[in-house]
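no rush on this but wanted to send it before i forget. theres a chain ive been looking at and ive put its sequence and its fold in token form underneath. i want to understand how the tokens follow from the sequence so walk me through it. thanks a lot i owe you, the record is right below:
>
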Amino acid sequence: MRYARSAISLLTRCNYIGKLNFAAWTRIYLCCFLLAVVVGCGGRTTTVELSPATRAELDAILNTLQARYDLTGSLKITQMVVTIEEGDRSEEIRELLWYKKSDNGGDLLQIQALGPINEPRGVAIANQDKNQFLLRLLNEQKAYLGPLSDGALRDIFGVDLRVSDVLSAIFANPFLDGRTNEFISVESSGVKFVITRSGVQKGHVETITLFIRDGEPRVTEWRIHDENGTLQQRAGFSDYRPVSGILRPHKVEIERPLDQTRVAVKIANVELNVEIKDSKFDIEPLLTEDIEVIPLSELTEQ
């Protein structure tokens, strides 16, 4: 399948618009999505046959991780600080996030990037029910609109984003894409599990580290190496705390050494299973007459 490209590539693809602040703000809006950038994998590698005891122990862990997602009908983050480091440059942004499973079972997501006095500067909405994706730049009077598809996200952002990857980052669960079998290896030392599996790109390998503490599994690290063994991306999840009885990380770090890019997220206020109206994820209120609406399909031609 496809593979993730760098945030620098993203800025290069957006430069045709000709405004420096657009490129900078685009990167800001996508910092949460960047957490979900996964070097994918369609290649096959020899897998290991697990013993019944190991398979049962592993299944219990995977079921617990899945249950955290299943039990989260909505998620609201009102205090989130994102630090982006790219080479020798660094910037800090405040963001808000709303997530909800709709009555139809679709995943709904809105992310806002805030300005210096907490005013919204940009809004990204992904509405799976309506198959819509919107990126609205409030200070540019522009909106980018198109179907919510993996291909569309790849074309606008220059990175291989899948809906399942976004959810994997939000829920600290690399297994939400359903790849829970055909592992290359599983190592266990009682409280620590190290799982190796094929990635989404041919020849790439993912290593996922989990710790069991107080009977609860915690995904702590997710590494992706290419066919030469070079580290492409590392995701770290830490500061786990229970929220409404569901264990969640409050710190996330993403590193892409080859791109000299690092994204760190600190969450101070998160609420689970609170009421969020579906209208929060409607794009129509953001498509006012005074803005320029650009179809995502036009970006693929650049």
About this structure: The chain is about 20% helix and 40% strand.
